[in-house]
Amino acid sequence: MTEWNEQEIVEQLRDERSRSAAFTLLVEHYKEQLYWQIRRMVLVHDDADDILQNTFIKAWTGIDGYRGEARLSTWLFRIASNETLNFLSRRRQMLSLDEEGVSSVAATLQGDPYFDGDETALQLQQAIASLPDKQRQVFNLKYFDEMRYEDMSSMLGTSVGALKASYHHAVKKISNFFANHD
């Protein structure tokens, strides 16, 4: 099978004989999207890789619990989202950034071989990192992934109205960040 057919993959995942091969296809199909969703939240490549691996482990061990009420991609993105937020909660890595924390984000990004942005891109990443986790997540999904609010709502279990408000507040905070860092 060369073309992605989600329903076919789901059926293969439910069959013990084809589960492993179908899961390999699932990983190949979603690993890059999930990686960047995670990476935008945690900033550090190694952390993103670890969380991505944990996401796929949880998906593999929980595949029997997938009921098919949401799309497979939504289920995976929800697992990745929860893993990312749990990681950030445990590490308290970016929750309350003061000036020292903002400098730390800058140092992390500048020392990262995967970051190739200019000064404006660096400032944008600093501004995004200064947001609370949920706002940062909503902003990243809307701004970078161009995800529809309805899809985010299904993935995050939050109302469309709350997501729009989070995005609006995030944009306002990012604008203020730039205004204060000229």
Can you put this structure into words, describing what you see?
This protein is mainly α and 182 residues long. It has two domains: 94 residues, RNA polymerase sigma factor, region 2, helix turn helix motif (Rna Polymerase Sigma Factor, Chain: A, Orthogonal Bundle); 52 residues, Winged helix-like DNA-binding domain superfamily/Winged helix DNA-binding domain (Arc Repressor Mutant, subunit A). The protein has nine helices and no strands. Helix 1 packs across helix 2, helix 2 crosses helix 4 and helix 7 crosses helix 9. The longest helix is centred in the first third of the chain and has 24 residues. About 3% of the residues have low confidence.
In brief:
The chain has 182 residues and is mainly alpha-helical. The protein has 9 helices and no strands.
What's the layout of helices and strands?
Blueprint: H1 6-14, H2 19-42, H3 45-61, H4 72-91, H5 99-110, H6 119-129, H7 133-143, H8 149-156, H9 160-180
Q: Segments where pLDDT lies below 50 for 5+ residues? A: 97-101
Instruction: Return the CATH class of the largest domain.
Output: Mainly Alpha
Portion in strands = under 5%
Helix percentage: over 70%
- Specify the overall morphology: globular
Query: Can you count the helices?
Result: 9
